[in-house]
Amino acid sequence: MHNRLEKKLLDLKRSGKKAFSLFLTAGFPSPEATVNLVCQLEKAGVDFFEIGFPFSDPIADGPTIQRSSEAALKAGMNWEKLMEIARAIRQQSDVPLIVMSYSNPLFCKGWENAIRQLSQSGFDGAIIPDLVLEESRPLKSLFQKNNLALVQLLAPTSSLQRMSEIGKESSGFVYCVSVTGVTGARKDLPYPETNDFLKKARSRISLPILLGFGLSRPEQIPLLKGNCDGFILGSALIRVLENVSSRLQAAQKAVQFVHPFVREIGKENRHD
Fold first, then answer.
1. Which terminal CB of the chain, N or C, has fewer other CB atoms within 10 Å?
2. Catalytic annotation on 6?
3. Active-site annotation holder among 47, 50, 124, 264
């Protein structure tokens, strides 16, 4: 049984289109803005969303996402409000939602309880950057039981053997990290090395592979789109949202910012 995320990825593959996902920090610039951003950006052509649950020790996040998490936490963001955001989105949209969280909040809620609540509130998957493959295996059945994809991350330093293992254990898609290090918009990426990494990943992985970390400009897309199934944009969008004064302005600026990416990603069919 496919959930919303898996169905969306299947539909994109059948139509020869690339996936485009956005990262938003839950509760930034406000909970209401998060709900509105998802609904407006879906209309603008975004395929699915990663909703980051703010955490006080975000080891994989760069300064931009850290600032947004701190602001959301100071404004009172918590687990219950994350569930409310998801339910509010579900009242307006069937767009796939993935929670991006560190292990600690889920462990503190109790893995079984947390996974069940994520599913019931409307999430379709989870990305947990500090949950390594070996530690995720005992939890796999809990995610499957609740029809939640558990998306694994793949680093450019991974061996071919590791790529194969992650491809078998991941569900939904595999998140390929463009550079070693933390999240953050980068003016340039190591294109030859990144394309080589993506080609190796594709040779070992049957699931869709999406590229994230470091994307900041639409001009980067054509240099990489031939070797992956889609893109994930995060910090560059969060930076845009740091300077908004209202929910309406947040949506307007965000749609304006992502439009060139939507256009670039949709320009041509994928190459296998």
1. N
2. no
3. 50
